[in-house]
Write a structure and sequence with these properties.
With about 90 residues, the protein is an alpha+beta fold. It has 4 helices and 4 strands; from the N terminus they run βββααβαα. It has a 4-stranded mixed beta sheet, covered by helices on one side. The chain starts with a strand and ends with a helix.
């Protein structure tokens, strides 16, 4: 399984999850939310990659919304933002 990320604009990305069946998702990620979550320590693409891995650890790719704003993840998975912070902390330690 792989996750491909294509930048459509500054805030809009197409994510392809190459797992049968292959799914495509349009995700909006604002600069404000990116900065709030990561303090710009990682790129938007890296945040999206980690976010999709987070989702795929919890549900099949066919259950992920086809179009959404990244901040909605925390409405379904309240632990999401804390997990991002843990991920960033580990990255800084490496």
């Amino acid at each position: 399984m792989s996750i491909l990320i294509k930048k459509l604009s500054d805030n809009k990305f197409e994510i392809t999850v190459k797992k049968q069946p292959i799914t495509k998702h349009i995700v909006l990620l604002t600069d404000e939310y990116h900065d709030c979550l990561t303090k710009k320590k990682i790129s938007k693409k890296k945040l999206l990659e980690y976010s999709f891995q987070f989702l795929l650890d919890r549900e099949p790719n066919t259950s992920i919304l086809s179009s959404f704003e990244l901040d909605i993840i925390s409405k379904y998975f309240p632990e999401y933002e804390n997990e991002i912070k843990k991920f960033l902390y580990k990255k800084i330690e490496e």
